[in-house]
Design brief:
It is built from 24 helices and two strands. Mean pLDDT is 78; it is low at 1-33 and 316-343. Helix content is 70%, strand content 1%. The protein has 488 residues and is mostly helical.
Length: 488
């Protein structure tokens, strides 16, 4: 138990260091030598973070949203950090450090808000529903569906987030597999691995790649050097697991009708691609933060939403928006009598409301908590322990494995905060390993956790664990491919 607690504390310290990247820069350099790692305040802060993260890991058991404990932990940690510096007669450093961490979070927050708004708008316009319906009506056999869902997950996740991609493809696997438990379990594992692997070679594919790109450590085009290693990390277990898939037709069912995308879907897809290009060009050509391009694109989306709300035809609201505002619909019925339907026009703000606010708030808690711990001196301690003693390649490989137990976002924050002296290809390696390492266990990524809930009782921790050896083999081969192809 003692060793487990020690490991958890170390892991949390790794997470905490992630937010310290601002502390490594400029103004806070003078205060960096001060260390509180052995003080009562420092140990208390680590304990607070560990407890809050245990609640995060047990979200399914406690039914407590993961953002709540880490936001409270962030507040308590920074109060103690401020107290520690104040007792030393320094009432400036803690405030400067906090503002730096808050600025880092603000950039990430607005970037993600813009991206999530586009994804939820495409969902509301039934783009993903149309794709899902098309796959179901293709009348392919189980093997074809297995490869189609895995391939689409791999190539969709670099644009959409891996969570949305996994849920979409997982729904197809379950709709077609029905009572074929073995196929559904293997199909879900394939989708999770493919979604995580696809997000590793694109700055937009995962939060970790986005953070590395926004820090300016790796140029946008260099991420695509990870395409082949990422492909290997998916194909290796996919080929092995494919032998467990029956070469049979799905169970016959009622004929599925094709779903049509709502008006405006195609222009929104084009606008999303334009926004991505704008974010990339503003960063690479003008050296402006990529969030500027994303928010500009979001503003254009809002203007187009105004056009849809004024001039596009009204539609019967029976989807996510309808369910999300069911209370308002009930009020309207009471006021207007016997209405059984509510006709709504497109409202972009209702779409934005459906963004994953729990996730966005969770990032706040993690970033600020880790930043507070880093300001107490854990950054240099972890940097010496991990990178100086183990070496970059081994350290980056082991950190990727740790992301199967600890969320890869705080892990990557930790590495960015350490700012180890590494080549670009070593930074690509840590980007690769933290992206695909979460596939080793079902609880290692948001995609895996979400699908466990969607396919409850079929795709489980243990069904995934049975194939962890194949996923681990793909993990090792992808690292070897990167070391060979990219000359680390």
């Amino acid at each position: 138990m003692y060793r487990l607690l020690t490991l958890l504390c170390t892991a949390c310290a790794v997470i905490l260091t992630c937010l310290a990247s601002p502390l490594m820069a400029s103004e806070t350099a003078a205060a960096a030598p001060i260390s509180y790692t052995n003080s009562f305040i420092g140990i208390t802060c680590v304990g607070i973070f560990v407890i809050s993260y245990l609640f995060v890991l047990g979200e399914e058991f406690f039914h407590l949203r993961k953002s709540k404990p880490v936001i409270v932990a962030a507040g308590l940690i920074w109060l103690l950090v401020g107290l520690a510096y104040t007792l030393e007669g320094d009432n400036q450093t803690a405030a400067i450090a906090f503002r730096h961490n808050l600025l880092e979070y603000a950039e990430l927050f607005f970037f993600l808000l813009a991206a999530m708004s586009f994804i939820t708008t495409l969902e509301e316009r039934q783009v993903f529903a149309a794709l899902r319906a098309w796959l179901i009506t293709c009348e392919w056999n189980l093997t074809q569906i297995y490869w189609a869902t895995g391939g689409l997950a791999f190539f969709l996740s670099p644009i959409a987030d891996n969570l949305s991609t996994a849920l979409l493809m997982g729904a197809v696997v379950m709709a077609i597999g029905q009572h074929r438990v073995k196929f559904v379990a293997v199909g879900c594992i394939n989708v999770v691995v493919a979604a995580n692997a696809g997000g590793a070679f694109s700055p937009f594919g995962d939060i970790t790649t986005l953070m590395v790109w926004q820090k300016g450590i790796i140029p946008f085009t260099d991420f695509f050097n990870l395409f082949i290693p990422s492909l290997i990390s998916w194909l290796t277990p996919a080929i092995i697991m494919s032998f467990a898939v029956e070469k049979a037709k799905p169970t016959p069912e009622k004929r599925q009708t094709k779903r049509q995308m709502k008006p405006g879907a195609r222009p929104i897809i084009a606008l999303f691609l334009f926004t991505i290009i704008l974010a990339i060009s503003s960063n690479s050509l003008l050296n402006l933060p990529s969030v500027l391009g994303m928010m500009t694109g979001l503003g254009i989306l809002k203007l187009y939403g105004y056009y849809l709300s004024r001039f596009a035809s009204s539609v019967r609201d029976t989807g996510h928006i309808h369910n999300h505002h069911i209370a308002n619909i009930s009020d309207i019925r009471q006021m207007k009598g016997d209405h059984t339907d509510v006709i709504r026009r497109f409202d972009i703000f209702q779409v934005v409301e459906r963004s994953s606010w729990d996730t966005l708030m969770f990032f706040y808690g993690v970033v600020l908590s880790v930043g507070g711990l880093a300001s107490l001196g854990y950054l240099s301690l972890l940097s010496e322990t991990i990178y100086q003693q183990l070496g970059a390649t081994l350290a980056n490989s082991l950190i990727g494995v740790s992301s199967s137990l600890i969320d890869n976002i705080p892990v990557m924050f930790a590495v960015l905060s350490m700012q180890p002296d590494m080549s670009t290809n070593q930074w690509l390696l840590i980007t690769l390993t933290t992206g695909i390492g979460g596939s080793l266990l079902s609880i290692g990524s948001a995609a895996g956790i979400a699908l466990m809930g969607q396919a409850q009782g079929v795709y489980t921790f243990y069904s995934h664990l049975k194939w962890s050896w194949a996923i681990g083999l793909g993990y090792l081969l992808s690292i070897a491919a990167h070391l060979w192809l990219n000359g680390v």
